[in-house]
Design a protein that fits this description.
With about 300 residues, the protein is α+β, with helices and mostly antiparallel strands. The protein folds into 2 domains: about 200 residues, 2-Layer Sandwich (Alpha-Beta Plaits); about 80 residues, no CATH class. The protein contains 12 helices and 6 strands. A 6-stranded mixed sheet has the order 2-3-1-4-6-5, sandwiched between helices. Helix 1 packs antiparallel against helix 2 and helix 10 crosses helix 12.
Length: about 300
């Protein structure tokens, strides 16, 4: 039986997942790029803030904030979509990841600094490079950088956390030989924090567990389908790929309106989540509600 993870809305986490049986699931450049694309897309849709990442040959690390309270959905979607892409490229069958992702709850301040530094030093500890700045597949070069980049991470938060690049570099040197983080194991998972924070976090977690959700919330949690599955079934039913639809035509607009209605009713997506998807990105946010109501009325 799977146990609930120690998390809550706004919590910080160190996330790690590894390829099944140690398989090098990130052995190619295209696979790493695709993972980063999925990370960027899904973090925006699920409103999860990413502060640091590092992709190694057979595993990845993330430091993120469960800003929306949907971290489990985000991780399930990220891993399953990458697994689909991995199998389409590498073929074969079976699991891609060896297990559920590992999640460590992080305290604020110094503990959050530890987690970021630890993640960025992975390639140095593995002997791949002498300095983390030489490693391409981490977020280390996105902090204290004057260049305007299309960042998927909240680099400004990290820069404020460390105050300046000098402190950032000093901690990278101090931590380069440390193999593990000073985590505490609780009955619901690992925590990187002091005893006071752990006590407060456990109380938050227990309150969440004992609060009974409404019938409406239970229905939303268990009956909605993942939006990828809705889109896949939509394309199969209509015999068309979304990328091939011309949304300037009457027929294309009708397809889009039907998909919008399904994403909201069958997938439970909000208008903010829907407008982040490609078919709807050029629409005005205020028009989504009108399109939805017209489509529902027409079907009724």
């Amino acid at each position: 039986m799977r146990h609930c993870r120690l998390t809550y809305k706004g919590a910080y986490h160190h996330i790690m997942n590894r390829g099944d049986k140690g398989e090098n699931i990130f052995s190619g450049k295209k696979l790493r790029i695709r993972f980063l694309e999925l990370l960027q897309e899904r973090s925006r849709i699920y409103r999860i803030v990413v502060y640091a990442y590092c992709i190694m040959d057979n595993h990845y690390h993330l430091v993120l904030q469960n800003g929306s309270g949907k971290m489990s959905e985000f991780m399930r979607n990220l891993n399953s979509q990458f697994a689909i892409n991995y199998r389409s490229v590498m073929k074969g069958k079976g699991y891609v990841f060896q297990n559920r992702y590992k999640s460590t709850l992080i305290g604020t301040g110094e503990y959050l600094k530890m987690a970021v530094i630890y993640v960025l030093l992975n390639p140095v500890r593995a002997g791949i490079c002498h300095t983390p700045y030489d490693y391409r597949w981490s977020s280390v070069n996105e902090y204290f950088c004057s260049k305007e980049l299309d960042r998927m991470i909240d680099n400004l938060f990290v820069e404020e956390l460390f105050r300046d690049k000098n402190e950032f570099d000093i901690l990278l040197k101090e931590w380069r030989d440390k193999e593990t983080l000073p985590v505490t194991t609780t009955r619901v998972g690992e925590v990187l924090a002091d005893d006071s924070f752990i006590s407060k976090a456990m109380k938050k977690f227990e309150r969440r567990q004992t609060t009974k959700p409404s019938k409406r919330m239970r229905q939303k949690e268990y009956s909605f389908l993942p939006f990828e599955r809705i889109i896949e079934e939509f394309e199969i039913t209509h015999g068309v790929r979304l990328k091939d639809i011309d949304y300037t035509t009457w027929g294309g607009k009708a397809f889009r309106a039907e998909l919008l209605q399904k994403l909201k009713d069958v997938g439970g997506l909000t208008y903010k989540e829907i407008i982040a998807l490609e078919p709807f990105s050029e629409l005005k946010f205020s028009s989504l509600g009108q399109i939805y109501k017209r489509t529902k009325k027409r079907k009724q």
